[in-house]
Amino acid sequence: MVVSWTVEGNEAELIAQCLKNDALAQKHMYEWLAPRMHALCLRYIADREAARDVLHDGFITLFSKLDTYKGEGSFEGWARRIFITASLMYLRKNDILKHADQLEEAGEQVPYDSGIVEQMDARMLMDLVQEMPAGFRTVFNMYAVEGYSHQEIAQELGITEGGSRSQLSRAKIWLKEKLKEYNIDG
């Protein structure tokens, strides 16, 4: 019997079929999640090819750990966590975050004006986020986009909470400076 999948209202059945290693269900799971998870990976990893590799690794993990999803909370939220972890593992493995904690002790910080960010569209902001240095981008994404606390970020990245706060502050300052280059004033 050929099953035509639509995820809406059928998520539990799709998961159940994926757990049975149903290739068609796995294909539909991939098609459903891949666009959003690829965008998530790109927010952390600016290199498109590396982000695709992380996406692939994330799906391998998702399918191998699918039996650990207990149906509590959003499945997509559970999946997002897998792809965030895969992205962070890539960054750690490639020592991209090795200098993140050193900024905590770097000089005084410049004040940040949040009015600038409100003047731009989401696409422009995401493009700028991709241009950020890796440490700034990672902490900015975890804090501003994913909602992690500085304590959680510090634990995930192996840095101090102060290092996380410093990276976020400097990411905002970096954004402000870039926006000035585009003549968007706060």
H/E element sequence: HHHHHHHH
Helical stretch tally: 8
State the end-to-end distance: 60 Å
Q: Helices and strands: which structural class?
A: mainly alpha
Identify the CATH class of the largest domain. Mainly Alpha
Mean pLDDT: 83
Give the low-confidence spans. Answer: 101-114
Strand content: under 5%
In the CATH scheme, what's the topology name of the largest domain?
Rna Polymerase Sigma Factor, Chain: A
Helix content: 55-70%
List the helices and strands and how they pair.
Elements: H1 11-19, H2 23-44, H3 48-65, H4 75-93, H5 122-131, H6 134-145, H7 150-157, H8 161-181
Helix pairs in contact: 1-2, 2-3, 2-4, 3-4, 6-8, 7-8
Written description of the protein model:
The protein is mostly helical and 186 residues long. Helices cover 64% and strands 0% of the residues. It contains eight helices and no strands. Residues 101-114 have low confidence and may be disordered.
Please summarize what this structure is.
This protein has 186 residues and is an all-alpha fold. The protein contains eight helices and no strands.
Kindly list the characteristics that best describe this protein.
186 residues; mainly alpha; Rna Polymerase Sigma Factor, Chain: A; Arc Repressor Mutant, subunit A; 8 helices; 0% strand; elongated
